Amino acid sequence: MAEAPPYLVVARELAKEGFRYINRYQGVLRLHGVLRCRFGDVPIELRIRDWDFVDFPIIRLLVRPDQLKGVQPHIFASEGLCYYSRGSVVLERFDPLLAVKQCLAQATEVLDQLALDPTYRQEEFTREYLAQWAIGQQPAPWLVIKGTIADRDITASFAILGEERALVGSDISELRAISDAINQPLKEIEGAKVWILRTNHWPSC
User: Fold this and answer.
1) CATH of the domain at 76
2) Which residue in 77, 76, 75, 45 sits closest to 60, CA to CA?
3) In this structure, what are the phi and psi dihedrals at residue 196, rounded to the nearest 5 degrees?
4) Residue at 202 is within a domain
5) Which among 17, 21, 45, 175 counts the fewest CB atoms within 10 Å?
6) What pLDDT does residue 139 have?
7) Rounded to whole angstroms, how far apart are CA atoms 127 and 144?
8) Residues 28/7, Cβ–Cβ less than 8 Å
9) First vs last C-alpha separation in the chain
10) 33: containing domain
């Protein structure tokens, strides 16, 4: 007897957990269901297009719970949910049901932490800002390479490295060594300084 295709196995098994089949179009399986979060059920849409699971299933909130209103890390304006960063885990392609359930469990955990743990929410908001603030900026910001900066320094040397990179550090000789190591010329190193600002406060959400 032929083995059932993965989309059929997943749709059939998730139906036992309340997920409803919507359609399968151009290889993309679409289901509606709920995530059983600690603060209440969250209706979602689940889309699976890559059955090798290199690209994770798409999870989109159908209803935004009151606990997650406003700007939130991991939740896009389209209500899509980022529950795993790309390449952070390897899902079992030979057990698609297990892979999908792992994603649903992780999504549930992310929503629970966002809704119930203000510290987690604040830290993730900051991490997402650092990772994504440059998206869409024209011209694109330069990559900054940080050398050694002593704990008590309030300024550091600044140089342009090559064409579109900046180099910052307390020791000019270290900056020159970095430049030599990657065979890129330093520009505007003499007298150029940056301020070092330190804070213990996270950006507000």
Assistant:
1) 3.10.110
2) 45
3) -105, 115
4) no
5) 17
6) 74
7) 17
8) no
9) 55
10) 6-132
Match 């290199």 to its residue by tokens: 54
71 in a structural domain:
yes
**DSSP label of 80:** B
Tokens of 134: 């440059």
Can you read off the two tokens belonging to residue 141? Answer: 């910001």
Closest CA to 168 of 182, 140, 153, 202: 153
Radius of gyration of the chain (CA): 23
Q: What pLDDT is attached to residue 64?
A: 94
Q: 77 and 12, same structural domain?
A: yes
C-alpha separations of 203 from 83, 124, 128 in Å: 22, 11, 11
162 within some domain: yes
Which pLDDT value is given to residue 172? 84
Q: Which helix (H) or strand (E) holds 35?
A: strand 28-37
**What's the residue count for the chain?**
205
Are 37 and 111 members of one domain? yes
- pLDDT tens string 111-157: 999 999 988 888 887 777 666 666 656 677 778 888 899 888 899 98
**How far, in Å, are 75, 110, 130, 176 from residue 123 at the CA level?**
14, 13, 11, 35
